[in-house]
Amino acid sequence: MAGVYISWPFCKQKCTYCNFASGVMPAGMERPYLEALLAEIGSHTWDWQPETLYFGGGTPGLLPVEALQTILGLLPPGAWQEATLEVAPGDLSPGLVRDWRRLGVNRVSLGVQSFVEPEIRRTGRKHTAALVERDVALLRQAGIVNLNIDLIAGLPGQNETTWRESLAWIERLRPPHVSIYMLEVDTESRLGLEILSGGRRYGAGELPSEEEAAGFYDSAVDLLAEIGIHRYEISNFAAPGFRSLHNQKYWRLEAYAGFGADAHSFDGRRRRQNVESAAEYVARWQQGASPCLRVDQARLDEERFFVGLRLLEGIQPTAQDWRRFAGPIHRFVEDGLLERDGDTLRLSRRGVMFSNEVFQEFVSC
């Protein structure tokens, strides 16, 4: 199954935890960015019929309806098995949601991150739990029932009580898909920089420990399972029939074409990456240059492990893989981080918590 990813990197505000190539930009940037994006899509040669579409960002829910319709008009015609739009809570209206549905959007991902107001405010977001509840109702009334809600484990000020409050809202709203991410601390976000420099802005001095954050995540696995939302990938949980068709492409090494700033593509053999910033993306278009930053040959033997093992169903290594990686496989099975079931290899429940260490071993072999 092939797919399309489209990047819309514009936001109303830059969240403190965000380490993506997105944010608040000059108002005059959107028009040339859209023109550059349309030019890139229009020049693409379609060797296959895409079946899934994902608008990421940024906040693509802010895309004007006319721009969304124009973009869709440049893609190969046909009904999308899944067309996802990432949306910030509070940006929805009944008319807008109806327009999305009319244009073929049939899945919406809400970047909630937390239902607890002090945690929400520290991230820079402005929604409330009640506003999220209203948005979920709007989407369902319009016929968009395939919903995802994002949560982050490890936010400043988060504790067992507040985490349980967010999970209680999940139980109340019953979205068919939930994504739970561990807070990433790096120099690419304002919060990460503050934490690494020993500062206290954005609640950096009230960060839960890594052990506490891991406990939050682990408790969510059990609670979500109790309400029929089961983990199928390290960060993703779904009710039966609601796994993300598009995102599974990344973990199954299937083809997808990416357009826009910092978009990635994979044709089954090569990986392609566009320039990261919207400004450089536009500048290259204005100069008549390609937005492509680099093209790399894929290492499918390694990627099968550090991408495919993210799926809890595991992978089936080839005979050559079993020989090449015999050492680390044996060690991780002995340590209880990997489980072997015949020809299938998968992360154990404990192994999920140490997945980065497991993956790194296969990359370096």
Give a written overview of the molecule.
This protein is an alpha/beta fold and 365 residues long. It folds into 2 domains: 3-251, Alpha-Beta Horseshoe (pyruvate-formate lyase- activating enzyme), CATH 3.80.30.20; 300-363, Arc Repressor Mutant, subunit A. The chain has helices spanning 30-42, 65-74, 94-103, 117-123, 129-141, 160-173, 190-196, 210-226, 245-252, 278-286, 300-306, 319-324, 326-334, 349-353, 355-363, and strands at residues 3-8, 52-57, 82-87, 107-113, 146-153, 177-182, 230-233, 236-238, 256-259, 264-266, 270-274, 292-297, 338-341, 344-347. The strands form 3 sheets. The protein has a 9-stranded mixed sheet with strand order 7-8-6-5-4-3-2-1-9, sandwiched between helices. A 3-stranded antiparallel sheet has the order 10-11-12, with no helix packed on it. Strands 13-14 form a two-stranded antiparallel sheet.
Quick recap:
With 365 residues, the protein is an alpha/beta fold. It has 15 helices and 14 strands.
- Overall geometry comes to globular
The rounded distance between the terminal residues' Cα atoms is: 30 Å
Binned, the helix content reads 25-40%
CATH class of the largest domain: Alpha Beta
CATH overall fold name of the largest domain? pyruvate-formate lyase- activating enzyme
- Give the number of helices: 15
The average pLDDT score comes to 93
CATH H-tier superfamily of the largest domain = tm_1862 like domain
Rg of Cα set = 21 Å
Portion in strands: 15-25%
How are helices and strands ordered from N to C?
EHEHEHEHHEHEHHEEHEEEHEHHHEEHH
Low-confidence stretches: none
> How many beta-strand segments?
14
